Amino acid sequence: MSHTAHIPSHRKPRRSGSKMAFRAGVAGGVFSTLAVAGAAAPANAETVTETTLEMPTLGSLDADLASAVSASAEATQQEALDQSLAAQEDAALKKAAAQAKKAKAEADRKAEAEKAEKARAEAQERASRSESRTQLSAKSSSGSSDAVSGRSSGETTQVATGSAAAIVAFARAQIGDAYVMGGTGPNSWDCSGLVQAAYRQAGIDLPRISGDQSSRGTSVSLSNLQPGDILYWGSRSGSYHVAIYVGGGKYVGAQNPSTGVVERSLDWDTPSGAVRIL
Question: Which residues contact 226 (CB under 8 A, 6 or more apart)?
């Protein structure tokens, strides 16, 4: 027998079921996983611990990359949307400005057209009135040789003859015109301006002021008036108002701003006196 037959061996028993496994995975040269595991051994065998080293997988990187791409795409889309909205707003503003400009131009055009139409209407009215005055004057002059009775406002009245006919016709043609202090026509008068213009139709020049007008000619009583006589209010040399007697107990005068040129009865505002120029 060998001298070592009874000496126990100090070497560990051989593993009858040990197993070592190596797992290696390479994905794109970036990821690898190595696992070493020990299989189960007999009761008296040592236990081999399994160790696993984990690294990021390809799937997680793909997800992060996809998320970044998606975010970039959303940002680009949002920027494009903002630019589109800004362009639409700018276009809307330009369109509104153009429409406003067009509307203003149209309003200005209409205003100018209305103004021109009004001016034409006024010109036609003045021409019509001038024609009427001319016809009245001619008619009065043609009948100046007649000394007959006529009717005025339904009453029998004296009819002006000669120069008086022209004076009366002109005065009556201004009825309805406005009263304006200092007015001498053709569409607005004051009292002495109307009297002066009426007498000019008969070729007679009178002073401009009422006091001077009533100082001319000869005094006549209110009961002996003739068409064409000048009526005055106040004293003869200091009258403050004048008018023209047109016959039938009536006169025509530029009274005041509220009435304008009117024909009134002597009873409506009895004058202080009268003078005869003709």
Answer: 158, 164, 220, 245, 247, 276, 278
Helix (H) or strand (E) holding 256: strand 250-256
Q: Report CA dihedral (168, 172, 173, 178) to the nearest 10 degrees.
A: 130
Q: Does a structural domain hold residue 195?
A: yes
CATH of the domain at 246: 3.90.1720.10
Q: Which domain holds residue 245?
A: 149-276
Q: List the chain pLDDT tens, one digit each, 278 residues.
A: 445 445 555 555 554 444 444 444 444 444 444 444 444 444 444 544 555 555 556 556 677 777 887 788 888 888 888 888 888 888 888 888 888 888 888 787 777 777 766 766 666 665 555 555 555 555 554 544 343 333 333 344 567 788 999 999 999 999 999 999 999 999 999 999 999 999 999 999 999 999 999 999 999 999 999 999 999 999 998 999 999 999 999 999 999 999 999 999 999 999 999 999 98
Is residue 88 in a domain? yes
Tell whether 153 and 265 lie within a shared domain: yes
Same domain flag for 113 and 210: no
176 and 259 belong to one structural domain: yes
pTM of the full structure: 0.46
